[in-house]
Amino acid sequence: MKVSVIGTGYVGLVTATCFAFLGHDVACLDINEKRIDLLNSGKVPIYEPNLEELLAICKQNGKYPVFSTNASEVISHGEFIFIAVGTPPLPNGEPNLSYLESAALSIGQYMQDDAIVINKSTVPVGSGNWVAMLVQNGLKQRVSAQSGNTIPKIKFSVASNPEFLREGSAISDSLYPDRIVLGCDSKQDTLRLKNLYNELTEQVFKAPDFCPRPKNYSKVELITTDITSAEMIKYSANSFLALKISFANQIANICDYVGADVNEVMRGIGADTRIGAKFLNAGIGWGGSCFGKDVDALISIANDYGYDPEILKAARDVNYKQRDLVIKRLQEKLKILKGKKIGLLGLAFKPNTDDMRDAPALDIASALIKAGAQVSACDPIAIEHCRHENPDLNLEYFEDPYLMASGLDALVLVTEWKEYTNLDMQKILNLMSGNLFVDGRNQYSPNQLTQLGFNYVGMGRHAR
Ligand code: NAD
Questions:
Q1: For 271-284, how does the pLDDT look when each residue is reduced to its tens digit (9 = 90+)?
Q2: DSSP 292-330
Q3: Domain count, the chain
Q4: What amino acid positions are annotated as catalytic residues?
């Protein structure tokens, strides 16, 4: 089938590659020329495990997607047109819908008859109707640009297909999703989208060696619903995950007072199948392009109706206070931060990505620099992104954590890259001037590090 994808970021590029891998003819549009040039030269502009390998398979199969900045070429190609442009937050917490607006207008200008426009971007509830209006406006522009002024009989419909992939495991999440949500306003659209997803839902493709099918995984649950409910599912899912992490962090802070170990507490509650063990890791809290933005957007949607969503606001507040807590702990232990050498292990908002959007490392580094500390940081992948996106951040960057450790007064684990959760901590301690280790992701044993000679500070954990 012919699929067009608008936007080649984390979601658009992964979606396009997976559809191409499954045998569809895919064309992708982006306004970022550099990105399209890179993709056309066979390079991948983002760091995402297995993406390069999957694109290579597409190439071998003669299904390498078309990558172009030409809206007419890409949009007119697709019977299915996916919108996967960014919806970043505005300062007031509402999502910036200008990219979506311009994508929808272009679709109206160039789409073929009977196309389905599918929203994969995370968009406020009601965006389905709004996108339909914009596509219609685009269609009118096409008409007025043509001679004769007669409106061509071009039918289209809009659907919602929210995306749940996680950066860092996006290919596996897309090939073996927990569920696929299809929000459509007609049975016919639901049927067409079901057909498009058939190889995936039935799992009738050969799994790539580098991304094997999980054990006991056979079919994908397909959730078909109306557009508004599909839009709400996406915001509710992210808000619930964000809430789970904030809950764990709030319990961690109480553990700090009473002397309990939050990792033990979460192990104890996570074993209850009604609760589940995932997303209960206490620490510095969530970051990234989605949780903060989506929680804020849902708060803003509720406010539009005069409703005060207290739980969502608390989830957000608890999260951002965890970042301040790192500074507080460093102050408690070091007393004076001015002139102190502090190293951050990890910059990306989570492991296995180079994404620096809303990364806790940025807030922590800025606060420490403001307090007069000399701050250094290392990351296996995200240094270039961080440097490029934050040219004014006065950080000293290191590729090697051991080189960074030399002469440090304190070391903070910010991102739990596997490279940083298995360090030779004796070697690190020998290199440091001080002995303070803030385990922002609760990855190390408080007892073992204390025995080595560290002053260990966890997030709701203590040496016994
Ligand atoms: P991104 O910023 O990585 O990519 C967006 C891309 O769209 C960019 O390459 C940009 O140049 C391009 N673009 C913007 N306007 C365009 C236009 N008019 N025409 C063509 N291209 C255009 O964003 P992302 O992380 O891929 O997220 C996309 C959407 O998916 C967002 O709504 C996000 O909330 C949602 N989402 C993201 C994730 C994630 O983990 N990143 C997961 C689920 C859902």
A1: 999 999 999 999 99
A2: HHHHHHHHHHHHHTT---HHHHHHHHHHHHHHHHHHHHH
A3: 2
A4: 290
